[in-house]
Write a structure and sequence with these properties.
The structure is a homodimer of 482-residue chains. With 482 residues, the first copy, chain A, is of the alpha/beta class. In chain A, 38% of the residues lie in helices and 21% in strands. The interface between A and B is large, with 111 and 109 residues. β1 of chain A pairs antiparallel with β1 of chain B, so a sheet runs across the interface.
Chain lengths: 482, 482
Amino acid sequence: MKNERNLTLLTDLYELTMMNGYFLEGKQDEIAVFDVFFRQNELITYSVAAGLEQAVDYVLNLSFGEEEIAYLKSLGIFDEGFLRYLSGLKFTGDIYSVPEGTVVFPKEPILTVRAPVIQAQLVETAILNIINHQTLIASKAAKIRYAAKGDNVMEFGLRRAQGPDAGIYGARAAVIGGCNSTSNVLAGQMFGIPVSGTHAHSWVMNFPSEIEAFRAYARVYPKGTLLLVDTYDTLRSGVPNAIKVFDEMRAEGKKPLGIRIDSGDLAYLTKRARQMLDDAGYPDAIICASGDLDERLVQSLKLQGAKIDSWGIGTKLITSADMPALGGVYKLAAVEENGKTIPKIKVSDNSAKITNPGFKTFYRIYDKATGKAEADLVALRGEKIDFGAPLTLYHPVERWKKTTFENYEVRELPVTVVKDGERVYDFPSLKEIASYARRETDTFWDEYKRLDQPHIYKVDLSDGLYALKAEMLETIRKGGSL
Amino acid sequence: MKNERNLTLLTDLYELTMMNGYFLEGKQDEIAVFDVFFRQNELITYSVAAGLEQAVDYVLNLSFGEEEIAYLKSLGIFDEGFLRYLSGLKFTGDIYSVPEGTVVFPKEPILTVRAPVIQAQLVETAILNIINHQTLIASKAAKIRYAAKGDNVMEFGLRRAQGPDAGIYGARAAVIGGCNSTSNVLAGQMFGIPVSGTHAHSWVMNFPSEIEAFRAYARVYPKGTLLLVDTYDTLRSGVPNAIKVFDEMRAEGKKPLGIRIDSGDLAYLTKRARQMLDDAGYPDAIICASGDLDERLVQSLKLQGAKIDSWGIGTKLITSADMPALGGVYKLAAVEENGKTIPKIKVSDNSAKITNPGFKTFYRIYDKATGKAEADLVALRGEKIDFGAPLTLYHPVERWKKTTFENYEVRELPVTVVKDGERVYDFPSLKEIASYARRETDTFWDEYKRLDQPHIYKVDLSDGLYALKAEMLETIRKGGSL
């Protein structure tokens, strides 16, 4: 498929004005370290990282062609030398990131860019755009998967997505987070996602009667006869007509697949429809439900005993309707001078917005006995951490307890993805990512994942990072400069 | 710029399964008429239509290439003859639509496709995706423009947009609805939108001190020195340092542009900063504000007397955060048999979801004296409407009143955009669209546009459409088939 776009200019103007400034101030080769992280938010207590592959594609394919340079020149604010410099610009830095599908928490440096400041600044906007979007949708899908408790979940939102990419990469992210398939054919083609879908109300309305429409569908798809039964009247017309056609199929030795209901009271209708199908001898016929569903409605329908085997989730997943932006940020954590790392901190009168300084990584600590994640630790890169020393860990049921590390496994989550401008990491297939995400999500107690009042997972700072941050804040308090 | 994608498969699988079914049932040449419309929603009392150019581009560039056909074949559900048929498929139908920038209301057929059913079905998903997204963002921008009362409004949301397209086409839509510029350089290049942006906190943190960062910025941009003053402490450090640099510039005969504040209490900070700038002799220095703003915060800040000249609106505009999907639908309105139009209706036990049948258009009625829009009338195409007859019109202040049409002008809003697969409409430039949208929006009384408890604009059905709908519903009530 043709899918070529030069997205180099997918950036905020201020990145380019700053780059021009760094160039003119002779700072273009200074190394800077930027972290991507999310802030605490009541609606996102845990997230599933996604979008790394597309973000890295953007960074490694940066290219200012003639048209881009001509456009920038036309703005009349850039130095000629800077524009010449841009025309040869490639990314030569490093990127560290958690693998896609990793469960991540607020304030963790899920992606770190270490590069000449002029490059690190350029890539900020696109990295945030891509990671914010895909992580948002993957996280929403994870919540829906949690509520659906193992049922089949289909992503149906393309028509309500915020433009083509939101549909395409939203479907990719939904599969990472927990969906089994998508209705989006282009996403199916691009990423090998299973595609699903049967027919719409318009199919039924395009035939002289509902039963003729159903018969035609059964003729065309004898192996996948799934009939939408709510065009006219679900229980008085749709389900009885579907059963009539199923009977005709059975008489010919064919096995129908089931029905879909897209409107009305899904609890009531699916229970009644299940009974009607069972009574007619179709206990294996599945019932798919769709129509403005999200994780809360799925949970409510299951609590009400709705008879739904397969869930089609549209608008509220593909837009993450209750929180349509994740608010990930990209903050300067350090600069390097003569090979020495100088940590940087951004303070704020809102203490939740104070950043963690320094070139960092983070660790996840697992209980060997249960295999469950117990806490994360954000630390400075190169910091020696005594994982054998007694540490305070959080357990959602037993609450605070002192323990040593001998019963725990420690894993460093970020990996090196790009080194000196070269990719040094093989991107897994989407199937592998989705499977990793499910395993990762399952290492967290349900207490962290429940929809109401979840426990807040503990993310701690290492001794070295804590001391550095305290020292820098103290210097600022005393009126000093950093 | 390279910007080539084959988006043909940007469709839901069920469109293709239905198409395959219509093909096998010999129905591929039957003509169907589908309407795009929005349903009533408390958060969108009026919308600004956008996305037509991209939707039509999709339709007229449909092309199933070898890779697309091979992928569809691999799914194992499509007829070989159908796949051959697809490989030569072009859109041969008609599209009617309101011009972009038109103010539209729920239930109005803002875009109508009349085409062989197999084509009309294919294009449903992408048309909805594109029109839903851009109309959503244009409508949100119109609300922000209303609240900003003529101030400069800048679209700043790219990093929080739902993927690259959401940023790119969202910026386009935001300009249609009411923004004056965007931070998105690619959108600037693609659509000729003015771009805006200066520097981030990281610029300040990348210099030894705030004042050195400000001095460097003033050196690089002596004609556009706009300084971000909230990196450390807005009133104690940022504004005083900015004034110091402005004084240095003044000594050299240069004129500074102003400051930007991106956090904290914008009402308090901007009033204090304004006073400090005025006292220092910079009454012309502008104050830009940004940081999680939307139309309600803009309105609130203006009510509080905040001193803000220019508004940067990010996340909440580019995602339409309080309502991230418009919910536009594409519903079968008619089919044609032997050249005769057979109207179709979709009923529901929710009466708000019953569709308007038939091949339709709609009219807007303007008061000649005031130039204001008074009501819209949805009618059947070809229906003779006696615009001289007394009609009941709604006036937001005078309430219901009887009047005749002699004091009114009537305009049919949809135009013919595509006829027999050929474009017969020249797309205006984005500048023309934005200017048209502003004129259109200004033809509505503020009573319809206010943020709280707006009057609901009257959209009526013509006598012919009303009679047809009543007759069809009566037939269904009596148990008849349509």
